[in-house]
From TrEMBL:
This is Hemerythrin-like domain-containing protein. The lineage of its organism: Eukaryota, Fungi, Dikarya, Ascomycota, Pezizomycotina. Residues 32-130 form the Hemerythrin-like domain. InterPro entries: Dimeric_xanthone_biosynth, Hemerythrin-like. It comes from the Eukaryota. CDD domains: Hr-like.
């Protein structure tokens, strides 16, 4: 559970870092539109992940452990960055790429929630590791149920390229397989699902095989 969560959290961090580092260098309306779309996809993914946790993971953990407060710190942390993400999400939807984009405002919004988000992404792993004192089988069943719902977000031509393009297969020496799919799926993502919004995936920090790459928009 902790390893799976760590992979997802690292995906979020890589994605947000790639946005933060490249956003000062987008100049044309087309590039700005792609940045805003890429940002929206990442934020949709983050919000769906945390909504899924609050709907499925947290209540089940409270029931399984008999501790109604076990995930309270995590719930409070969600609230600490929720409004900032919503603000940036709205910015990606209403901003005219030709006339309305302000790199200063864009960065200002990220700065308003990124520290709280990072703290949560880091500390939630320790919460999961501390569950090792509870029986494994009920936790495994709960995790499988939650995983099914949390992964059901967005369209394939948005979430698949985002997930593959922000996943580093070299994490912990490459000993984990994530995303847990056959190699042919990477080819399907690259040559099929990524085609519709291919300009947006230029911002990804990794290629679709999970290898880190030089950020496209850095000078």
């Amino acid at each position: 559970m902790a390893t799976d969560m760590c992979y997802v959290h690292n995906l979020f961090i890589r994605g947000l870092n790639s946005i933060y580092l490249q956003s000062p260098y987008v100049k044309t309306p087309n590039d700005i539109a792609d940045l805003l779309f890429y940002t929206r996809c990442l934020l949709d993914c983050i919000m769906a992940h945390h909504d899924g946790e609050e709907m499925y993971v947290f209540p089940d953990l409270e029931e399984l452990t008999g501790d109604p407060e076990i995930m309270q710190v995590n719930t409070d942390q969600h609230e600490a960055f929720h409004d900032g993400i919503e603000t940036l999400l709205e910015y990606t939807k209403i901003t005219d790429p030709a006339t309305g984009y302000s790199q200063e405002r864009f960065i200002e919004i990220i700065d308003s929630f990124a520290p709280a988000l990072y703290t949560h992404l880091k500390e939630e792993i320790d919460t999961l590791l501390a569950l090792d004192k509870y029986p494994s089988e009920p936790l495994k069943a709960m995790w499988a149920k939650a995983d099914k719902h949390i992964n059901d977000v967005g369209s394939f031509d948005e979430m698949f390229p985002l997930a593959f393009g922000c996943s580093d297969k070299g994490f912990e020496g490459g000993k984990h397989k994530h995303p847990p799919v056959p190699y042919v799926m990477k080819m399907v993502v690259k040559y099929w699902f990524a085609r519709k919004h291919q300009g947006a995936w230029r911002f990804c920090p990794c290629d679709f095989d999970g290898t880190p790459k030089r950020l496209y928009f850095l000078p």
